[in-house]
Design a protein that fits this description.
By secondary structure, the chain is of the alpha+beta class. The chain has 29 helices and 23 strands. The strands form four sheets. Strands 4, 5, 6, 7, 8, 9 and 10 form a seven-stranded mixed beta sheet that branches.
Length: about 900
């Protein structure tokens, strides 16, 4: 005590009440309870002060000893407990029974927790942002998973619906159509299915009767399809069995097409829809939200009778409804046996026939696709890791903050608060923090969902069903509460274990308690690093895979190329020669447009069809897939196709106009030449479609072109044979000298000037279409990379926090080390080594976990192994580098410690 203080205390009576209130301020006691405690302790200190004066001590000495007695942990704890027992309990505002007491206590805990959070705005803001990021990312991705994978399809009991396909594992074809006779046998022999229906594989039709013809993909369906799906038309009725048998010209519209074509007119029933020059009568409109098989289907027609007797075609798709007691496994076993019986009853005579195997696929799996389901579950797992890392970070913050509040909790314990009571208060603060973070995360998720829907490729099914609905809100609530438990429970348990006697001592840090807290915080950082390594590994594999994909040579030059889908209405009077003349005139008129360098035509530029199975080469034995194996497909093109697309000619020549008049000529790609004519010069060789007994024309090979990946960069080139023929629907390919976009309108006009009934659709550039083919992979890659970057940042912050707190706790030790001669490099090595040890342990655990988990991503990768060494090494070095930076900053601060100031303050 200074001389000035001693003089002041000698002139006035000590103010014990103010000293006691100062020490009780952090407890926020009720006024009546605090007054009773202050009065009792003040009386005790006054008696003790008087006793010291009577013993010969000076006023200053007596005052100083009384203050020391007040600061003593054992005396203070004993007196607080005794006084607390003497104070009557205050009445509970909300009632007198135990239940209302619990509610009142919870409300008090939440109010006190809110005050404590507002008292430390920096800590609260960091914790809220960290948690909101994790909860928002989880909610956004779950909303996508819910909309695409979990939400039921718009049918009655959709979980019992399945698609049935012809399965041909020998040629790698597992989802091929089937014939009507096969369907009839499946339906009659099945005991697992309540019913089956058929629909076409989708054929383009031209809508006429409007200002401009429109090409659509309609569906031919059996009359029992809509009853099987359990959906009735909103207006009118569905098809009858008689209309199907008679081939009646009736049509059922989708809700969207009804709005677009008929303006939503309620009297649409009975009106005519002109399809390729013929009138079809509208008999029904399906309800809003219904679609089958895709949302692009505008209307449905009765299934055609054509080809129903041919068992060896593949024009129909089959959908079935399981009986309530049947399972998909039972249905698969039954249909496999049915296929084996059909194979024995009907020997295969057509070499192109795929076989009688049957593949039963649940309808929801059919709609979403395996790769999309896997990608979405991987993303959901990734954001779960991000949330766990965020929870670990907040738990570390709470542990650090709890260490500074040990004296407060010790006083509470001294007043009689049990360990459970202190834990309840801390958990209430954590849940309050989680609730606010959940609200912020929900707003973040809504923005992220809007961005995902806008950026997602259009071919993702059920994209318009992604939203923040009640299920997503319930998920967010659950995630928020679970997060509060995860990051709040462990710190509460550790902090509540601290020794009150040690914490109440002046300068008492609680050595044992501090050690336990440091061990817990270090364990959390190790867990963060391990989870981050798993995320970084997955993201690294996808990024390497995507970069490898982008470096693939497509086999043509997509820059400056415009595509236009052109369809002619079906006509029984139009000959193939007339179709050829039409596309020849179209190409000639487009070639005269300014800026056009070359024009050609192809049946389907970005084809997705299954390949054909067999050709017979002259002088060679015939085998499916050819001598070298592999699928084969035929493509129909116009004369200028290869020049327009920029495909390289490797051998021989390209088509000329004379090739269409004389013997049939063909151009093959490099893969076909290697597989079907190994070690031979294919120029001049002849082949025909089908087996040796087929009556198809012979084709002579006149040229070999390079392989083109028109199915997508990730698909391996298939054997292709190009024939100089034109179909009623072709893709016109236009190569421009610069940006082909401005040519779109002129190209449309040139096509319509040749034939007003021709429908022009899908006018786009080849580059944009190629981007769409890889859009889903690109989105998955960058989302996972973003989550991994967030996880890496959070891990770095977690390591920084642990080391920063450790430096603050060890200032006295560091000061002594420096005073004894330790150099700055020694201090740096000490502090950085502590942080790197945690990072290395976390990296090791993460790499082992990644080795176990990354195999599930095999289907998402392209030409990159799931155990790619470069990725694993790069991930380990990245995290160690971030840890090194996170450790260096507090270590650098430690080297600036002044030992004299530190030791004096201690």
């Amino acid at each position: 005590m200074t001389a000035k203080t001693r003089e002041a205390t000698s002139d006035m009576k000590p103010q014990w009440e103010s000293e006691i209130r100062l020490r009780l301020a952090g407890l926020h006691l009720a006024p009546t309870r605090e007054a009773a405690i202050v009065a009792e302790l003040a009386q005790y200190l006054e008696d003790y002060y008087a006793e010291l004066l009577a013993g010969g001590a000076s006023e200053a000495e007596a005052y100083e000893q009384a203050l020391a007695e007040l600061s003593g942990s054992e005396l203070l704890a004993r007196e607080l407990r005794r006084v607390e027992r003497q104070v009557p309990q205050e009445p509970v505002v909300l009632g007198t029974n135990r239940r209302t007491n619990m509610i009142a206590d919870l409300w008090q805990d939440l109010r006190f927790g809110a005050r404590m959070l507002m008292k430390h705005p920096g800590f609260t803001l960091i914790a809220l942002l960290t948690l909101a990021l994790g909860i928002g990312a989880n909610t956004a991705i779950f909303s996508v998973v819910n909309g695409v994978l979990l939400r039921p399809l718009p049918y009655h009991e959709p979980g019992r619906l399945a698609m049935l396909w012809t399965d041909d594992p020998k040629h790698g074809v597992h989802e091929e159509g089937t014939s009507y006779p096969n369907f009839a046998d499946w339906r009659s022999q099945s005991r697992a299915f309540a019913d089956m229906a058929i629909c076409s594989r989708g054929a383009p039709l031209i809508l006429t009767g409007a200002d401009e013809p429109e090409r659509v993909m309609a569906e031919d369906v059996s009359a029992n399809l809509f009853p099987l799906l359990g959906v009735k038309p909103m207006l009118g009725r569905a098809f009858s069995a008689d209309e199907e048998e008679q081939g009646a010209r009736v049509v059922v519209l989708s809700y969207g097409f009804w709005l677009r074509r008929f303006g939503g007119a309620p009297d649409v029933i009975g009106k005519a829809l002109e399809i390729e020059g013929s009138n079809w009568r509208v008999i029904g409109v399906m309800p809003q939200g219904f679609y089958f098989p895709t949302k692009d289907t505008p209307f449905w027609l009765p299934a055609s009778l054509t080809g129903r007797k041919n068992r060896f075609n593949d024009e129909w798709r089959v959908v079935g409804r399981l009986k309530p007691e049947a399972t998909f496994a039972q249905a698969q076993a039954e249909m496999t046996a049915t296929g084996e019986r059909l194979a024995q009853a009907y020997p295969v005579t057509d070499p192109d026939f795929a076989g009688f195997g049957v593949n039963v696929v649940p309808l929801l799996d059919q709609v979403t696709g395996k790769n999309l389901r896997l990608a979405l579950w991987v993303l959901l797992g990734a954001v779960t890791f991000v949330l766990l890392i965020a929870c670990a970070n907040v738990a570390n913050l709470l542990l650090a903050r709890g260490a500074t509040r040990q004296r407060e909790f010790a006083i509470r314990a001294a007043l009689g608060a049990g360990r459970a009571r202190i834990m309840r208060q801390l958990c209430a603060e954590s849940l309050l923090l989680a609730a606010v973070s959940g609200s912020l995360g929900l707003g973040l998720a809504a923005a992220v969902v809007r961005a995902l829907v806008a950026l997602a490729p259009p071919d993702i099914p059920r994209l318009d069903e992604i939203s923040i609905d009640h299920g997503v809100l319930l998920f967010t609530t659950g995630v928020s509460l679970l997060s509060g438990v995860l990051f709040g429970l462990a710190p509460a348990m550790k902090v509540s274990q601290s020794d009150p006697n040690e914490a109440l001592k002046v300068g008492g840090g609680g050595a044992s308690g501090g050690l336990r807290l440091r061990q817990t915080r270090s364990l959390l950082v190790v867990g963060e690093c391990a989870l981050t390594v798993v995320l970084l590994t997955g993201a690294g594999l996808l990024v390497r895979s995507f970069l490898r994909l982008q470096s693939v040579n497509p086999g043509f030059k997509p820059e400056g190329v415009l595509l236009a889908r052109v369809s002619l209405p079906e006509s029984r009077t139009r000959t193939s020669a007339q179709t050829e003349i039409f596309f020849q005139q179209v190409c000639e008129r487009i070639a005269k447009l300014p800026g056009v360098q070359a024009v050609g035509a192809v049946r389907d530029f970005f084809f997705k069809r299954n390949p054909d199975l067999m050709i017979t080469a002259e002088g060679q034995s015939t085998a499916p897939g050819g001598p070298g194996g592999g699928p084969l497909t035929f493509e129909y093109i116009g004369p200028g196709f290869f020049q327009a697309i920029g495909a390289p000619l490797l051998r021989g020549r390209l088509f000329t106009e004379q090739d269409g008049r004389g013997p049939k000529a063909a151009i093959i790609n490099e893969t076909l030449a290697r597989n079907f004519f190994p070690g031979l010069d294919p120029i001049g060789k002849r082949f025909k479609k089908g087996g040796p007994q087929s009556r198809e024309n012979w084709y002579t090979v006149v040229g070999v072109v390079g392989d083109m990946r028109r199915q997508g960069l990730e698909k391996q080139p298939v054997s292709e044979c190009f024939l100089l023929e034109q179909m009623e629907t072709m893709d016109v390919v236009v190569r421009a000298g610069s940006d082909p976009g401005p040519l779109a309108t002129a190209v449309r006009q040139a096509i319509r000037s040749v034939d007003q009934t021709a429908a022009v659709s899908s006018v786009t550039t080849v580059e944009s279409r190629m981007g769409e083919l890889s859009a889903q992979r690109r989105l998955n890659t960058w989302l996972l990379a973003l989550f991994a970057a967030v996880a890496l940042t959070l891990s770095g912050v977690g390591i920084f926090g642990v080391i920063y707190y450790a430096v603050a706790q060890r200032r006295r030790e560091i000061g002594i080390r420096i005073a004894l001669g330790a150099r700055s490099s020694d201090v740096l090595r000490l502090i950085i080594g502590q942080g790197l040890k945690l990072a290395v342990i976390g990296v090791g655990a993460g790499l082992l976990t990644a080795l176990w988990l990354t195999d599930v991503m095999e289907r998402l990768l392209f030409e990159v192994s799931a155990r790619d060494p470069a990725t694993f090494v790069g991930v380990a070095l990245s995290l160690v580098g971030v840890a090194l930076l996170a450790c260096y900053l507090p270590a650098r601060r430690a080297t600036k410690v002044d030992p004299m100031i530190t030791l004096r303050s201690e």
